[in-house]
Predict the 3D structure of the following.
Amino acid sequence: MRGDPILEIQGLDLGFAAYGQVTQVLHGIDLRVEIGQRVAVIGESGSGKTVTMKAVIGTLPHPAGRVLGGSIRFQGRELLTLTRSERDRLKGTDISIVHQDPLTSFNPVFTIGQHLDDVLRYADRRLGAATDRAGRQRRVETTLRQVQLNEPERILRSFPFQLSGGMRQRVLIAMALLHRPQLLIADEPGTALDVTTQDEILRLLNQLVSEEHLTLLMVTHNLAVVRQTADYVYVMQAGRIVEHGPTRAIFEAPRAPYTQQLLAAIPPLYGTRVQRREALTTDAFITASDLAKRFVSPRHWLEPARPPVTAVRGATLSVCRGDIFGIAGESGSGKTTIARMIMGLLPPTSGRIEIDGRSIEDLRADPAFRHRIQIVYQNPASSLNPRRTVAETLAVPLAFARSARRGERADRTRALLAQVELPAHFASRYPHQLSGGQKQRVAIARALAVEPEILVLDEPTSSLDVSVQKTIIDLLLALRTQLGLTYLFISHDLSLMRNFCNRIAVMFRGEICEQGTTDEVFLHPQNAYTRALIASIPVISDEEERAKPSVTLEERRAVLASTVQL
Amino acid sequence: MSSATDLTQDFEELSNLGRAWRRFLRNPAAVIGALIVISVVVAAVLAPLLAPHPGHAGSFVDFRNRHIAPSFAHVMGTDNVGRDIFSRVLFGYRVSLLLVVGVLGVAVPLGVLFGLLAGYFAGVVETAFMGFTNVMLAMPPLVMALAITAVLSPDLVNSMIAITCLWWTWHCRLVYRVTKSVAAEDFVEAARLAGASHFHVLFRELLPNCTAAISVKTTLDAGFVILFGASLSFLGLGVQPPTPDLGTMVASGAQFLPEMWWEAVMPGLAILYAILGFNLLGDGLRDMMDVEI
Amino acid sequence: MIASYLARRAIGFVFVLFGLSVVIFVVARVVPGDPARIALGPLATAEQVAQLQQEMGFDKPAIVQYVDYLGRVLHGNFGRSLLTNRPVSADIVEALPATLELVLFTLLLIVLVAVPAGVLAARWHNTWVDNTSRLLSLLGVVTPGFVVALVLQLFASLFHFFPLTGRLSPNLGFIADITRLVLVDSLLKGRFDVFADALSHIFLPSLALSAAGIGQVMRITRSSMLDVARRDHVETLRSFGVPDWLITIKYMLRLAATAPLTILGLEFASLMGNAFIVELVFAWPGFASYGVRAILSKDFNAVMAVVLMSGLFFVVANLLIDLLIGIMDPRLRIRRT
């Protein structure tokens, strides 16, 4: 009956036992999901949201995970007092979970068909019904069609690595739906996917909930995603529920400071909160004309030749001195390839690049050029040598850039660390003794050591927590003013770029499909892909939603169809 | 400002080595291994002082005391010409350790160098080195060592040469694999972009990332070199008598099985003891440094 | 698909075998001392030595000697054995089946013992099952082959369950002429008495030969299974209630098997080496014991042939293992789309 609770968690206390001690991770969780509702649980990593879901499903690590108190009732039945086999009977049949990472959730050496068949067969068996393979196959194909996968036979025969991320996520949803569960739990749906694909997956979930009369319990760290996909929201922090309420109330009038903090951390796309950047100069500094890059895959003479991959085609762009120029695109769009060509690391197949009037061929031959443009990498863990201290890492550019004597070097190291707001005693630390944000600051310091004019930033904040991202961005802005730097900022995070860059080029499958000032691109996007991309970014207010560009259904389908191939 | 919390977030001041050491001590097998290895080294170095009958290590005969079973006077018994087996075992450890030092002292640096070069430079260098290495690895090492020592005359130095010729390839392959994966990391490119020379990248950036794997493998290898050398001398192709060698002792004792079992079993256990020690130590190091071999 | 994957590996191995032949040739010819004189002994006259040298082709330049040698080897001509005075190829053909049988039985033993042991040890991680099997496998790894062989012989002589040496009791009058493998042929011909006898003869040598292999494979299986157990897809299947035993035997094992199989391929090299010792100790009439005799009497042609055969065994075994891995792991043979 609608309105009745399908899941009720009351006063749940949970802990983990290790080396004889129990650490409590959940404190008095109260959660209620009504039939037909879509409920979201928001929390950052470490909030306890995943553990709560595991407790509901019954996959807590055993015996480390201990319930210390409270109750979990499903359709009125107390789950915590059930036996293992009774609990197992509910899995996949009454309560199903859609897992987070479509890449690692499948065993790579088995076909999709084998996964789905085994799941269905054992679910049937647990309910006492023995079914035949043909019957199961029919049911599996029907479910695949329901999640908008139109070639079920081909998909069943494929191995996971032969499908795209979006398709794999749909298969995971299908796996959860095979036995018509009452409660569907979705763990970070679409987080591992591109924004456009994530949008589609969320729409699919909405559709399934209404068509199949499901109840949806969604767990995510991204508050904005929740606005369109949930009726009721619980906010968790450090194992406690700090706030809950209907979606509208949470977004429009959040009471808890943590919720307000979460909302504030989401960069706005439109409205007065947007931070606009201005160009500092109008002198063209970096220009690329009709740039193209083709990769020929090395082939073994025993195999048929594979067609060369065109990573970039017909790219033309212009960066002025002092710009924060953003190159936006999803994975495989060619954005990193363009940046590497501009840096001189990859020779272009055709086209011209000029920096400060000199061609890239000239510059690649000139060792002094190396020091005018540097790069900060995405993953702070792999961009620092784990076996070298901060001082030793910084010594490399210092030693080879200027002939600095030992004494001078120590001073320069201190100065660099101060510039990135790190205390001097960090110089003797190893990377494992630094946090992600601190490591990234060291990476920035290393890039600055040779006093470059241009800094290429390759997704520098993607692997950092949202709160830390902001501090790094602030640092970069300060450095730009202090040192007169020009930035080439590569990212897939458009909302971040909206508030950081002054010019943006949007790339799609190797081509620049839109280019202009940030305001132009966001307020008046011309290209269909750009519009679809911006439209699929989750926002937190109705005003912003209305300000988004409009995209017709056909346009969206067309863009999606072309991205699915990637 | 949350930047402040980011900066003051302090981590354990304990260094790399300190934490690793504590992890090592918590592993009983590793500690036992270390103790065994230390005892073997001490036994070998101080053999003349520790052996109850140091004179028995050379050519010595005492037919009145042959074939005595293990007793207080002779802890491991005596062999067919009356020599105290325990003393000979202690001196036998000298030969074993000499073999280890001789082989690994050459094989490891050679293998590491070639592995680094092959993994970093790729292309022709990689194909040439690894092609050659793969050929060497395809040869059953004992077989090749037998063949080599057979054509040269059998003695300690030749066995060392034979074993070294093959052994360096294992280290080469190991370092090659580690180097190849590390060379793809961003910090290597960053160092090159900062102006580092190839020499710097190879020895200051890549090599430190290999040392963990190299030390584990070298420790485990010490045990296997001993095993190998013993197998060679068991077949009569290693050290020649009267120099005491554990493998030869087992071989000559084998004729007297099963009545005078101690003459073959005791030296065999001695070999086992040494290999066990190195193996446990190597495993312990592997767990401590968290590497995959 | 899988054909091209195998073809690539096979070509690599052909190069390996060529390289092997070069190295063997170089080792054999770059010998201090005169092989002809060594073969004939110190009492030979200068003419006799010169004649043998010419017979053996030592007076021609090295490259020519190698090409000649390679040509002959590819035709199966390994020259004459100085010990038996028969063509070496005949000696090897006669001795080959015994070694083949021993090696195959050993591999079977390793897989049937080590893999289940590793799976169980991983499943009952940190219990007595795990600790006992780890201890036993450690002993297998650290005990030299000849020590295991001698200890087994000791027990055999004390308890009289198994025969000490040889491949078959002499009084049974059985000729294996179908596959040349006594165990197989005796079953094919219905002679179960011969089968039982052969089994009792092969058991101890095989056990001695397999000890190290069992140890290594068991440890790798265990760690590989533990590693796979941590992965997300295992959790996925569990959350749908798929039974644990199915997950372990079907899903985890298939993924985890690559590592132990690869190790088995590498272990094969030391297996071949240990075969020499085991065949010697148990007087097993295979080409490895033939090889030891050849080495000890400096019978060149025989030594080179035996080393080449061992290399060939290694290469073929690894090729078969690669085939098996390719079947089990589709990522290796199917191109990503």
Observations:
- The longest helix of chain C spans residues 192-229.
- DSSP finds 14 helices and no strands in chain C.
- The two ends of chain C are 13 Å apart (CA to CA).
- The mean pLDDT of chain C is 83.
